[in-house]
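Ligand-bound model needed. adenosine-5'-triphosphate.
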Amino acid sequence: MTKTLLITGAGGVGKTTIAAAVGVTAAREGLRTLVVTVDPARRLASALGIAHLGDEPTPHTDEPLLWAAMLDAAASWRAVAMRHADPDVAARLADNEFFQAASEHFPASQSYAAADQAATFVQARAWDLVVVDTPPSGGGIDFFAAPAQMADLVGGRLLRWITGGPLPGRKLLYNRAARPMLRVADSILGSNLLERVAEFLVDLRTTYDGVARRGREIEKVMRESSIVVITTADPAPVREAVKFYRELPGLASTPEAVIFNRSLPDAWASPTVPPKTSAELRSIVELWGSETLRQRDTREEFSARYGATVATVPLSDEPLTDLDGLALLMSQGSGIPWERIGVG
Ligand SMILES: Nc1ncnc2c1ncn2[C@@H]1O[C@H](COP(=O)(O)OP(=O)(O)OP(=O)(O)O)[C@@H](O)[C@H]1O
Ligand SMILES: [Mg+2]
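Prediction:
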């Protein structure tokens, strides 16, 4: 049975790094592991053995049991259309300027495409563990809401109204075009434009059944996944982490843990400074000491308020760009509930 671990959290907190690090750790524990990553730094991508966007899962040449794939978060609607529309409709959609504009401006579509792709890997049952790095667009919670949002958008009331009840609805749509507002728009913009909008909406609507059905499958995969929230002790990412504890129930399971990344070592909270240390150095050490204490307080408060399992991964002074470095980083972490997240 394939276990799935979703790595989520605010932008820039270390999701991609920790997804890769957990993946290496799991592979070295003997699990056939796939890391599904989004937009990794180039050196991290090459450490994982992936070179191209949209890659199929690729086995690592030096690390038996480790596979990696890179999600093309920008492929978004195009991928969705290819999957859920007839080939000629998909081609027409991809060619439609409104489709292109919508795909660029509707953030849930990126999350949906990523979630859809990740769910496909999970359903392939080819790995013991699939670690999914979630895309940063619009805050990670998007990823979990995307299937429902997408179905809502494609089959939503507005669209139903415009395209008319049952498909094809084209005729009804053109009747609507007789409404004064649309007539004005038509004369200003040219009738071809309205026709292109109509075509886009009607074509999009034909994908509804597929998108809705697939959305339910993706949600099932999400509900059966373990979730880990990554944050740092800074206020903005902590606020984002709180959202996952407040809003995830209903969308997916409660997170197994919140990992405070880039944590300073506890020992720094009460440093021993040799007597002859200069005042300048002493004040720097004290500054780091108070930052360490602040971080500890933040973690304790989070744990008390949300009943969360709190773990840490230390701040590394090495660039995190090779597998050994990533494995070492994870081994220096504390409080990570390895068993509950499907490793060991
Ligand atoms: N524990 C750590 N110690 C030091 N540097 C770290 C640590 N974790 C991550 N970093 C560095 O922080 C930067 C951001 O990390 P990463 O790309 O993993 O974040 P992300 O959450 O995936 O970002 P995004 O939301 O943009 O996808 C990278 O340069 C990474 O090497
Ligand atoms: Mg990332």
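The first helix runs from residue 15 to 28.
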